[in-house]
Write a structure and sequence with these properties.
CATH architecture: Sandwich
Number of strands: 8
Distance between the termini: 45 Å
Helix content: 10-25%
Largest sheet: 4 strands, antiparallel
Oligomer: single chain
Shape: globular
CATH class: Mainly Beta
Order of helices and strands: EEEEEEEEH
Strand order of the largest sheet: 1-8-3-6
Length: 108
Amino acid sequence: MEKRNPLTLTLDQPFVAGTDDFSPFYNRLHKLNCAIILYCRAGRGTMAIDLKKYEITVNTQVVLLPGAVISLDEKSDDFRVSFFFFSLHILKCFVRLVSVLNPPFFIL
């Protein structure tokens, strides 16, 4: 049975967090309509981001913005990532908040 795409966001659920093996993206191209923060907890994998391959190993952190094209090309049997997917609306609200607060560690 094929797993459901965890990137499905709704107005009632503008973000999703969890841990998964990312199998819905295995050998499939997917254009993101949300932002993603990934953290590799176990195993290793090769992920194509905008058709460029990157090695994902334990403790690797990845930040992806809307519009990126991703695919998980290879993964070990124990590959696990924790993820936080959030909608473009939340990203825009965050950027607006940062521009109002103007903290010294963000340069816009």
